[in-house]
Amino acid sequence: MSAIRAATVTFDHVSKRYPGTGAAHPGAVEDLTLEVPAGKICVLVGPSGCGKTTSLKMVNRLIEPTSGRILIDGADAAEREVTDLRRSIGYVIQQVGLFPHQTVGENVATVPRLLGWPEDRRRARVDELLGLVGLEPDLHRDRYPAALSGGERQRVGVARALAADPPLMLMDEPFGAVDPIVRERLQNEFLRLQDSLAKTILFVTHDIDEAIKMGDLIAVLEAGGRLAQFGTPDEILAHPASEFVGRFVGADRGLKRLALARVRDLVLLPAVTAQLGDDAARVRRLDASDSAGFVLLVDDEGRPIGWIGPRQLPDSGGLAAAMAAPMSPLLDRRTTLKDALAMLIDAEVQVGIVVDERGSVAGLVTADEITAYARREREAQTA
Ligand SMILES: Nc1ncnc2c1ncn2[C@@H]1O[C@H](COP(=O)(O)OP(=O)(O)OP(=O)(O)O)[C@@H](O)[C@H]1O
Ligand SMILES: [Mg+2]
């Protein structure tokens, strides 16, 4: 792939009024001013009809603004040749919009074909991109969109938008049409991809949770296409600028902020561990009062096997796997505190086991510690 390129996008007092909109229904986008720095994901979020799609389409000039300017790397989009502009911007449209009579490979190669790339270069790029979005090229290249699942179609849509390695991507509810599990997987894959691509991305959703997860920056729009707030997810959750934003982010914004923090942000509690075969009499003398007398049984690589409570611990002899009770949820340092808390609640336990990349025990996290973290954050914001 070529060197990383990303563009800065600036909305400079941009408005769009559709013909026929009167005083009662002023405009689709009203005086929008914001700047998206190169390499960042900016999420446009807001209720249906608040002007998200209109804002995106003004960037690639599928819609022309009524007033104001959109600058890409400082250059006015209105002065660019329109086909050239569009080819330099990846676009994933609402409801995917693959060409039904073209194969997956032909769909992905749309812009390279328009750019006149030779056949072998197109083909190599198609396979590279399918791999990148998690579709086996040999299996999917020659299929038609109708023969794909919703999630696969979304991936092809993303691959097609990435085809010419554009410095800017517009994504209109790219993961909107799939079930929550597939959606979460696509989100995670896309964030991982973006780690290396570092494109500038304008991403539209009406789902505040998706906005918080995907956005480096979030622009909250309200009815009439007005910008209600522009900031980082944490700023918006900590300090909603208006009653509208407060209602939109929800009464559970404290909980939502936990989705922005990860297990690595906490100081892990040390785990009292014992290995298979260890002498029970010696293990009895360990101080496991922090974990209610429970000792974590691990294998010779330090990987957890299960908890042994004071009542399961024999007076003497070696420790065996059969003595261990089922395990707490396993977390890693990247698990968000929101997910960690949800896992603890689901498992009806107080303590989660944190493992490192090799699966060895790194320490413990408790539900109390997570709620204490949330409380500290809340106090810090009101201070
Ligand atoms: N071609 C058009 N002519 C007149 N009004 C339009 C046109 N396209 C959109 N609108 C209106 O402009 C407003 C913004 O539409 P837009 O499609 O940008 O909303 P959106 O935020 O993307 O909504 P959704 O979440 O439902 O996709 C809406 O009130 C819509 O009815
Ligand atoms: Mg829309």
Explain what the structure shows.
The chain has 2 domains: 9-254, P-loop containing nucleotide triphosphate hydrolases (Rossmann fold, 3-Layer(aba) Sandwich); 264-376, CBS-domain. It has helices spanning 52-59, 82-87, 104-108, 110-114, 119-132, 137-140, 150-162, 180-197, 208-214, 233-238, 243-249, 253-257, 280-284, 337-347, 367-382; strands at 9-16, 29-36, 41-45, 67-72, 75-76, 89-92, 168-172, 200-205, 217-222, 226-231, 273-275, 295-298, 304-308, 330-331, 351-355, 361-366. The strands form 4 sheets. The protein has a 6-stranded mixed β-sheet, with helices on both faces. Strands 2-1-4-5 form a 4-stranded antiparallel β-sheet, with helices on one face. The protein is 34% helix and 21% strand. Helix 5 (119-132) crosses helix 7 (150-162). It is built from 15 helices and 16 strands. The chain is globular. The mean pLDDT is 90. By secondary structure, the protein is an alpha/beta fold. The structure holds adenosine-5'-triphosphate and magnesium ion. Magnesium ion is lined by residues 52-53, 94, 172.
Low-confidence stretches: none
Number of strands: 16
The percentage helix is 25-40%
As for the CATH topology of the largest domain, it is: Rossmann fold
- Spatial ordering of strands, largest sheet: 6-7-8-3-9-10
Q: N-to-C terminal Cα separation, in Å?
A: 47 Å
The hetero molecules present are: adenosine-5'-triphosphate, magnesium ion
CATH class of the largest domain: Alpha Beta
Number of helices: 15
Query: In the CATH hierarchy, what is the superfamily of the largest domain?
Result: P-loop containing nucleotide triphosphate hydrolases
**Please, what is the average pLDDT?**
90
- Structural category: alpha/beta
Envelope shape: globular
Number of domains: 2
